[in-house]
Amino acid sequence: MAVLQGLLDTDGYAGVVIEYTSVSEALARGVVELVQSLGGTARLRQKVTTHVYQGERRTGHAWRVTLKLPAHLDPFRLTAKLAAYRRPTKYPPSRGIKSIEYVGEKEAQCIAVAAADRLYVTEAYIVTHNTVQALAHLLLEKDSGRADRPSLVVAPTSVIGNWQAEAAKFAPELRVLTLHGKDRRAQFAQIPAHDLVLTTYPLLPRDITELGGFSYHLVILDEAQNIKNTRTAAAKAAGSLSARHRLALTGTPLENHLGELWSQFNFLAPGLLHDEKTFRDLYRTPIEKRGEASRRAALSARVRPFILRREKRDVARELPPKTEIPVRVTLDGDQRDLYETVRVTTETRVREELRARGLARSTIAILDALLKLRQAVTDPRLVKLEAARGVQGNAKFDWLQTHLPQMVEEGRRVLIFSGFATLLRHLEDWLREEGMPYSMITGSTQDRQGQIDAFQSGKTHVFLITLKAGGVGLNLTAADTVIHYDPWWNPAAEEQATDRAYRIGQDKPVFVYKLIAAGSVEERILDLQARKASLARGILDGGLSDATQLTTADLDRLFAPLEDEEDVVAG
């Protein structure tokens, strides 16, 4: 908005209509795009101009844009022009069908938008989530001749193999270059000779000097939530890349807070959601801290025209059913005593921290305490305390020892997700002892594709996966059972993990087991999960949600004593 205001302050006319005039066609078309991106309408005309230069009469060309903006937007900053501007009180900007003509293949993006008049289409900014859809778009761009330079995909390390496989399967005509490994620097000179270049988020900032030396047709961020923190090197490097178009592919544009959404839009269309401070004052603080429905509705209306959001119920109606099964295990004996010991010790430290530093500055202490509580209920072997040695009870592992062998005997293929890599290594030791074939992906796994291929081909029946290393990007439709061993703070991350199995191509019913220690901190985490999911739905779909800021009451609930099974059922 600030860019448009600057241009109109300099070369704009204010009155009943707003006009902008320039001798630059590119600048005039840029104004048209800015106006349309803000929900307005613009008409571009070419004018023949005359002028006298050194006594000689000359003719030239100028471009005039007649535009209309929504009433709540100020087109000018200059006081005089703003005073002369007659803000429309009726007949707001609208778009309608003037004619229907066959034009053959033309560039068309963001075709399923939620604008009020259902016709708003963006040309360069899309939020979507589909590797194959992106490849199809790249192929059409190449066939039409528009893609006369390479396109760059930045993806998590774990999914680079998936991009290679999908490109070979669905778009074999594309010349693909993968920049990965120690020898990649020798490949930079080959970039112009390829249609599609693949790199990863960790490598992007390291290679930005070389990658930033090219101008791309498309820059595609896969799992774009990886740039949710604008201060990371990857986010800064992504924002510096030069491209005609930018795409953000993600199933979870909003995971924890609204600042993540701002970061992705700052990559796609800088300025659309203002600068970070203005966004925080205008939207994030009123929505997250005060739950203001009007601000939430305003933000939703602003971003929805730029989001192509396709849910499984809309585009994959042929998918078999998915059944979610909460499994509540009971902590007994030593494990119950350990939980209470950890709870009392950590709560004391947190309360001291709160008194000394206040809630806002005690985040690290709070998260560390909750981590220890989660470890105690997940597996006592994760707790690095003297009191944890020799603990006999292990409720979740007892459940797994009973049910997993039965599942495998029935021919089921099982994914086990956990946030703790150490926990998976304990499960790995047990699977080896049982002689049960398994695959495994953690942050330290080297041959990821080999692990995936072994599971998909049937050589292994169980797949151990950490949420961060394998919760996104993997295609594991051979699985029909998903076990979430421990709940994650972020409900979107769990959904993404489940979707490794429950995705297009799945032809079997999928069963999702969520192991929860009854009456413990895990059940209270689920309450916070529900609030985060509600916030995401409110912004992306325009619905309502409560504020999501962690409060003192939340802490009291999280650190409450372990409830008895009878109390949990009664509550």
Characterization of this structure:
A hairpin with a 3-residue loop joins β1 and β2. The strands form 3 sheets. A 6-stranded parallel sheet has the order 5-10-9-6-8-7, sandwiched between helices. The protein has a 6-stranded parallel sheet with strand order 11-16-15-12-14-13, with helices on both faces. Strands 1-2-4-3 form a 4-stranded antiparallel sheet. It starts with a helix and ends with a helix. The protein is built from 22 helices and 16 strands. The protein has 3 domains: 83 residues, Homing endonucleases (Endonuclease I-creI, Roll), CATH 3.10.28; 191 residues, 3-Layer(aba) Sandwich (Rossmann fold), CATH 3.40.50; 135 residues, P-loop containing nucleotide triphosphate hydrolases (Rossmann fold, 3-Layer(aba) Sandwich), CATH 3.40.50.300. The protein is of the alpha/beta class.
The termini sit apart by 51 Å
Say how many strands there are: 16
CATH topology of the largest domain: Rossmann fold
Which structural class is indicated by helix and strand composition?
alpha/beta
Tell me the β content.
Answer: 15-25%
Q: What is the quaternary state of this protein?
A: single chain
Tally the helices.
22
What is the class of the largest domain in the CATH system?
Answer: Alpha Beta
Estimate percent helicity: 40-55%
Mean residue pLDDT: 82
Identify the CATH architecture of the largest domain: 3-Layer(aba) Sandwich
**Bulk shape:** globular
Give the radius of gyration.
28 Å
Tell me about the largest β-sheet: 6 strands, parallel
Low-confidence stretches: 96-129, 542-548, 566-571
Strand arrangement within the widest β-sheet reads 5-10-9-6-8-7
The CATH superfamily of the largest domain appears as Tandem AAA-ATPase domain
